[in-house]
């Protein structure tokens, strides 16, 4: 049985590490520490020039919920156009109305801007929508080809029951990509739901090369160690990839 492994990365170093570990596809973002935001065009270009596997780009204008202002919506559409022109494989996006439904009008504009040759993944805004089955049908109708979801739980393994129902309801019309807390220990259980695509970041910590360190002057995240960086671990990517190869599900 074929399984797809997507690794979420926010740097060129992580992109190369994920590819060397055997990732089938990348989701490229910035600021993975806060759940990911839109990467710069320069980072997109650097990654596209360096890797040979497909690259999907996360588009999210800021940290927080997915109910966007008109200005944020205009920016998202322009980011879709930029990604299209740069030649990425796909974009990963989502938006909600205040009542928890998908913002169909805005998402339709985004997909139209992307055009027929761009893959469109509905990101984890889906996990915050009011009705997952309504969201599934809306995503199909809009033309998304994939939904990234944890089954509306903090971790995908906790949402396994819903993931299975989504796979059943999707009936091949759209792919269900399981994400959040995915790792070697839960792959078999997730695969038993019928999910065939898996998303994880394979993060490992790395010390900053800074020797002189001024304390007590945080640059935006007072509770985080700003001299500790995280990169994708190719060994962990390879471990997950090899585990997927052994699954007879």
UniProtKB/TrEMBL annotation:
Keyword Metal-binding recorded: no
Subcellular location: Cytoplasm
Lineage top rank: taxon: Bacteria
Transmembrane parts of this sequence: none
InterPro entries from the UniProt entry: CutC-like, CutC-like_dom_sf
Listed Pfam families: CutC
A single Gene Ontology CC term: cytoplasm
Keywords: Cytoplasm
One MF annotation (Gene Ontology) recorded for this entry: copper ion binding
HAMAP family the record matches: CutC
Family recorded in the similarity comment: Belongs to the CutC family.
The protein's name: PF03932 family protein CutC
Gene: cutC
